[in-house]
Each structure stands twice: as C-alpha cells, then as structure tokens.
Amino acid sequence: MKRTLLFSIFLMIMMMAAGLAGLAAAKDPDRKELAPIIKTNPSILNFNCNAVERAKEIAVTNASKKAMTINATANQSWITVEPASQPDIRPLGVTTFRVSVDCRELRGSKIETGLVSVEGMGFGSKVAVRAKSKLGPAARPAK
Questions:
Q1: Do 84 and 114 meet the contact criterion of CB atoms below 8 Å apart?
Q2: Do 59 and 72 touch, CB atoms closer than 8 A?
Q3: From the centroid of its chain, how far is CA 134?
Q4: What number of H helices and E strands is found in the chain?
C-alpha cells in the first residue's frame, strides 16, 4: 500500500512539473506560434464612374508561419471580386484580388461605399470601396 501511495504521489508531481513546463513554454515568445495575420494594401479603393474605370487590385500578404487559403467577398452587389479564393498562400506570400465596380448599378450624386472582406483561418482585413456615380440627381432616369 505504501508503494502505491508513493507511486501516486510521484505521478502527481510529474504531471504538475509537465504542466508548469508547458506554461513556461507558452510564455516564451520565441517558442510561441504566430497567429495568422492578413495584411492588405491598399486599405481604400476609389472608383470614378465619370471616367473609364478598370479593375483595381488588392495585394494580400499572409504574414503568418502557416500556408492558408485566403477568401475575398464584397458586401455590395455593385462590387465584384475575382477570384473569390486563393488557395495555399505560403507564409509571407503575396497574392492579389481584382476588384471592379458596376457603375450601372449606382444612382444619385453621392459617393457609394462598400467593403471587401479578406479572410483566412479566421483572421481577416477589410478594404473600403468608394465609387462616385456618373449620374447626378438631374440625370436620374424617370420611374
């Protein structure tokens, strides 16, 4: 019985020591895995529908230690993002997404705003999209 008790105490001490070693490793910044980070450039895209506007690009950097798939979506129907997904972007790798605006969907004289969300492994970034309509209030089609 003494042997069993001593063995149980020994196991408890070993488990506590292993737990403390794990906590120390987690606090060591050199041993800690970096969280996935996505960086975008630029942070704002401006479109002017009075001129011939071509698609613009968003450069996206995977600033983490792991390869990841990066997805991009727009929150407005007049914004198009291509491609919707870029698979297996290596650590510190850069990829691009093309963003275009359908000026036919914009009406009025105010600047319309939307967002492109770029996401990978639960982390992300947003790029603002601003577009100035070519139709002013006087040129709005009659209903």
A1: no
A2: no
A3: 31
A4: 1, 9
Predicted TM-score (pTM) of the model is 0.68
Evaluated on CA atoms 50, 55, 61, 66, the torsion sign reads positive
Q: Tell me how far apart the alpha carbons of residues 27 and 81 are, in angstroms, rounded to a whole number.
A: 40
Closest CA to 62 of 38, 43, 84: 38
* Mean pLDDT, each 10-residue run in order, the chain (143 residues): 61 57 46 68 92 89 93 97 96 96 86 95 94 63 48
Report whether 130 contacts 116 (CB < 8 A).
Answer: no
Closest CA to 80 of 103, 112, 49: 103
Residue 70: burial class (beta carbons within 10 Å; 0-12, 13-18, 19+): buried
- Which tokens belong to 72? 């991009």
CA dist., res. 81 & res. 97, Å (int)? 7
Helix, strand, or coil (residue 84): coil
In terms of Cα–Cα distance, which of 89, 57, 84 is closest to 71?
Answer: 84
